[in-house]
Design a protein that fits this description.
The complex is a heterodimer. By secondary structure, chain A is of the alpha/beta class. Chain A contains eleven helices and eight strands. By secondary structure, chain B is mainly α. In chain B, helix 2 packs across helix 4 (76-96). The chains are: A alpha/beta, B mainly alpha.
């Protein structure tokens, strides 16, 4: 049974791992019903094209992907943001910088929300053909969320590919020079550190402290906040878990570390996620499984009302990632 | 091939309380307190544990503290350096006893 078939069968666990309780049953055993709250965030995946092929990517994004949001869909996303005032709009990919309409999207979405986020891998953003992008982002007060898994070059490049670490450090310095992440600046530069393998992330507080000290000491780099996220067993990371024989122990580790306290802050409770071709999901991870919002394939152009409090959320066993330990915000 | 060491046996560690519950409770409570954040960080304590695990050559401990070090944010280079510390002390402990050999040999030799 393929993963896409398994995800549609509520009786089986997605990974077909023995002794793994389905996520639905696990919630029921805890007497929990996972439903939506007020929708405050719009997440837009502008495509799976990326200049990197990170081993932990849940979408298999890479240089050879052709799925990319076109101008028509981008305009429909802008119309949605005009109709409903979202507190936060979060642009992700792939490498969102590689979408040819990214400057238009940023310029038009920025006035429509309190916080516009762009997720960056720190290499695509500084490419030769991206002239003026950094200045546009700074001018529109865009919040940046940038991947930097480790301060060790070997460990970082084991996840993100060769020749990614030094360029990332150069980009961070460039962003600091523009005012991003500097103390007292309102230009937010937030870092994300994912574990570089089949293990849980370290304590966010401790990693942030260490990164802050080491980045300052070694490169005079500063940042606003740091977040740690566990890797989601989907896409390219799932393929690696299978081929390396780590899948069973990893998913059981996530399930064993299920923490009901994480449920209140789960992003799927207050977010609408739009795929590159304009379809609606409860989160970006569900895009990998074609697990549509509300259980049916619906396009952004068909959306009359936002999902609201009490509405159901599509879940499967990959959801153990966001509920493990300190969780995923 | 059968072996005395099975990775899954590590999960049975707590069963060691069954034969002597009071001692087990005291040990595991102490163990937990030792690894809590203190003057040393949990990351530093985990690196020390990894080094000691290699010195006492405990496969269970090596498995557990390799994973724990990674989950505490250490990298393989740091973990390798920690093992070299244990190696240096183990090797140095042998070598420094050579002073006894030299003392005894010196005493009984012409």
């Amino acid at each position: 049974m393929s993963y896409l078939q398994a995800v549609k069968n509520p009786q089986s666990n997605l990974y077909q791992v023995p002794n793994l309780e389905t996520f639905r049953n696990n919630l029921a055993n805890h007497g929990i019903e996972l439903t939506r709250k007020k929708c405050t965030t719009l997440q837009v995946n502008v495509g799976q094209l990326c200049n990197q092929s990170c081993k932990h990517c849940h979408l298999d994004a890479g240089p050879f992907r052709r799925e990319i949001m076109n101008e028509k869909t981008a305009s429909e996303v802008i119309r949605l943001a005009e109709r409903f005032r979202f507190e936060t709009i979060d642009i992700t990919g792939g490498a969102p910088e590689m979408n040819p309409h990214i400057k238009m999207l940023v310029s038009k979405l920025a006035p429509l929300t309190d916080t516009l986020i762009l997720r960056s891998n720190l290499t695509a953003i500084a490419a030769e053909n991206q002239k003026g992008l950094l200045e546009l982002l700074a001018g529109n007060r865009i919040t940046l969320i940038a991947s930097l898994p480790s301060l060790n070059e070997t460990q970082s490049e084991a996840q993100r590919g060769e020749n990614t670490f030094a360029p990332s450090i150069r980009t961070l310095k460039k962003l600091n020079a523009l005012g991003y992440g500097r103390p007292g600046s309102d230009l937010q530069l937030n870092l994300v550190s994912n574990p570089t393998g089949a293990f849980l992330p370290a304590s966010q507080e401790h990693v942030e402290k260490r990164f802050r000290q080491m980045l300052a000491d070694k490169w005079d780099i500063s940042f606003t906040n740091l977040y740690v996220f566990a890797n989601v067993p989907l896409g390219r990371f799932l393929t690696w878990l299978q081929s390396s024989g780590n899948l069973e122990s990893y998913i059981l580790k996530l399930a064993t570390n299920f923490n009901p306290c994480t449920l209140d802050g789960l992003m799927c409770r207050s977010l609408v996620s739009i795929s590159w071709d304009g379809y609606l999901f409860d989160c970006d991870f569900n895009q990998s499984l074609q697990l549509y919002m509300g259980g049916r394939k619906k396009h952004v152009s068909e959306l009359r009302d936002l999902p609201g409090p009490g509405d159901t959320i599509a879940v499967s066993e990959h959801c153990y990632t966001c509920t493990a330990g300190s969780g995923f915000t | 091939m059968d072996t005395y060491y099975h990775p899954k046996d590590l999960l049975k560690f707590a069963e060691m309380s069954e034969g002597a519950p009071e001692l087990g409770e005291k040990f595991f409570s102490y163990y937990s307190a030792v690894f809590a954040e203190g003057e040393l960080t949990q990351r530093e304590k985990s690196l020390i544990a990894l080094a000691v695990a290699h010195a006492v050559q405990c496969p269970y401990c090596i498995d557990a503290y390799t994973q724990d070090c990674l989950e505490k944010g250490s990298n393989v280079n740091e973990m390798t350096e920690a093992i070299h510390v244990a190696t240096a002390i183990r090797g140095g402990a042998s070598l420094v006893h050579g002073v006894q050999m030299r003392n005894i040999a010196g005493k009984i030799s012409l």
